[in-house]
Amino acid sequence: MKTRAPASRFGAAAVVAAVLAAAGVGCSSAPPLGARWESVETKTMPSPVHVLVIVPPSYDRDPARRYPVLYFLHDGYGDGRTLARRGVAADALARMRAGSLPEFLIVAPDGSGSWFADSYDGKHRFGEFLVEDLPRWTESHYRTLARKGSRGITGISMGGYGAIRLALTHPELYGSVSALSGAIIPFGQEDLKRYSWVARFTLMRVFGRDPEKNSFEANDAWQILGRSQFDSPPFTARLEAGTEDPYGLDGVASQYGNLLNEHGVPTSILLEPGGHDWSYWRPAMEEILDWHAARFEYDAR
Q: What are the start-end ranges of the E strands in the chain?
């Protein structure tokens, strides 16, 4: 499939930050049958973090069985309940019950406005929560297979950036990593100047406002990958994006995916018709779930 090259080094993706860093809209609706809304106590955040847990259909009737787990990071307009609200949770559970999707847990934390990273001032250490407290909590409260080959991470848009950054900085955690319309945009000072004032505000709220004292470089996914050296493939990756993405994130997926391959991270790239919205993301999430399911290590039975 031909890919559409971005207009410049990162194309129109530069403007996407204004949308992706927006705070999510809350939702009070109950999760579907098979999903649970949990609260996780943590010292890394000012208050407990709410988490949606999608539990496999056989979980309660097979108490000796342990399951892989997929961590999901939502988009900039989303929140912890996004998978339930958008129908992805119900779709996944129906497919598991029908046997067309292998069973695993899905854990989706509420990280609205966080970029799924630690804030520069240290008051909101969401990145630390994701790699330490959340896996520890999940593995102590649910019967998961606590090993790399049974653990994956994915995300949409802002969450896609978070998934890639976390995997590169903690390659020991996940065996499979994916991003759907991932906002894997550069954080250099010259790049920031091209963004709208809203984008700069939301990014600086997380990574620091001072041009000299900030954590942009430390969290730039392109620079992180450039600094990374792997003796062997750290994980398997997949980048998906729609070819009608208004922010040019299809071009970003192509460029960044090729760079991952060059750095020794086996990466597949899927560019297909679609935009930057849930009319594309909901069916694309089926492909993402299938891809992770095919790579998980399962309980020997």
A: 35-40, 49-54, 69-73, 105-109, 151-155, 176-180, 236-242, 267-272
pLDDT in tens, the chain (301 residues): 333 333 333 443 444 443 443 333 334 456 778 899 999 999 999 999 999 999 999 999 999 999 999 999 999 889 999 999 999 999 999 999 999 999 999 999 999 889 999 999 999 999 999 999 999 999 999 999 999 999 999 999 999 999 999 999 999 999 999 999 999 999 888 888 887 777 778 888 999 988 889 999 999 999 999 999 898 999 999 999 999 999 899 999 999 999 999 999 999 999 999 999 999 999 999 999 999 999 999 998 6
Q: What separation in angstroms does the CA of 241 have from each of 143, 250, 257, 285, 287?
A: 33, 5, 11, 11, 12
Cβ neighbors of 94 (< 8 A, separation 6 or more) are none
Record the pTM. Answer: 0.90
| Those residues with Cβ within 8 angstroms of residue 149's Cβ, 6 or more apart along the chain or in another chain | 175, 296, 297
The count of C-alpha atoms lying within 13 angstroms of the C-alpha of 25, restricted to the half-sphere facing its C-beta, is: 5
Query: Which DSSP symbol is given to 16?
Result: G
**Which residue type occupies 10?**
F
> Exposed, middle or buried by CB within 10 Å (0-12, 13-18, 19+), for 299?
middle
